[in-house]
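This section describes the prediction task in plain terms. A model, or a person checking by hand, is given the sequence of a single protein chain and must write out its three-dimensional structure as a string of tokens. No templates, partner chains or ligands are provided. The sample shown here is typical of the held-out split.
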Amino acid sequence: MDITREPEKIRDLLKTARTIAVVGASPNPERDSHAVARYLLDAGYRMIPVNPGQAEILGQKAYPDLRSIAGSVDIVDIFRRPEHTPPIVEDAIAIKAKAVWFQLETAHPAAVKRAEEAGLLVVRDA
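The expected answer:
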């Protein structure tokens, strides 16, 4: 279900979520993914960085992919180019995430459709 234009559902998602995986998290403080990851930590979420090139980001163990994460993930926050998002959505489905959040200009039409068909909540730039 695409909840992009439903602020109350987005608020509910953020209120109930505890664990957010940031795919494409960067150790570079100038990158948006770094700023969002820091914000999530500061807001009290369990933030899991997903970046195969890093061992740790913001003091948190980084994972090479979603399937390597032990435990549940509520939201998969995607900071990757659109052409890289379909396999990320497949991984989000496989780990039984509740939602995928496509950051600005990361949504791939087929990936959005697949996430919706699998029953994930979807947030994307409209």
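For orientation: The helical segments are 7-16, 32-42, 85-94, 109-117.
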